[in-house]
Design brief:
The chain contains one helix and eight strands. It has one domain (about 30-120). By secondary structure, the chain is mainly beta. About 15% of the residues lie in helices and about 40% in strands. It has one helix spanning about 5-20, and strands at about 30-35, 40-45, 50-55, 60-65, 75-80, 90-100, 105, 115-120.
């Protein structure tokens, strides 16, 4: 006869593959950011996380992508001025862009332009 701990262990072993395949995904968005002085920088961030760009004057800006539903090609990018010891985080703009599409002007202050280069890991995994 199996002990209670053996039954729990056996159940955990049987359920582990289905739990792993049911994990949520967080696609990585690679963006090309054009800064106000015209330089470009490629940055990547997981959906709803941030990637940072530091301007020549030392100010830091954060770019947070949000990927929209299928076909996982449209992205809203929120732009924030990073918090400092004297200033809180502040929203400076938002834009919508399409993967592989043209560069979009955020019409923000300072003015940034963003192009979505890739969205990796956006396909939902099918369980077997």
């Amino acid at each position: 006869m199996m002990t209670r701990s053996a039954v729990v262990l056996f159940a955990a072993i049987l359920l582990a593959p289905s739990l792993l395949s049911a994990q949520t995904y967080s696609p990585v968005v690679t963006m090309r950011v054009t800064t106000p002085d015209g330089t470009t920088q490629d940055i990547s961030a997981r959906e709803s996380a941030v990637a940072t760009v530091t301007l020549k004057d030392g100010s830091v800006y954060e770019f947070r992508p949000t990927v929209h539903d299928e076909p996982f090609s449209k992205v809203t990018v929120s732009i924030f001025r990073a918090a400092t010891s004297t200033e809180p985080i502040a929203s400076v703009g938002e834009l919508q862009a399409t993967k592989g599409g043209p560069t979009v002007d955020a019409k923000s202050r300072p003015n940034f332009k963003v192009a979505i280069l890739t969205i990796e890991g956006a396909q939902a995994k099918k369980s077997s």
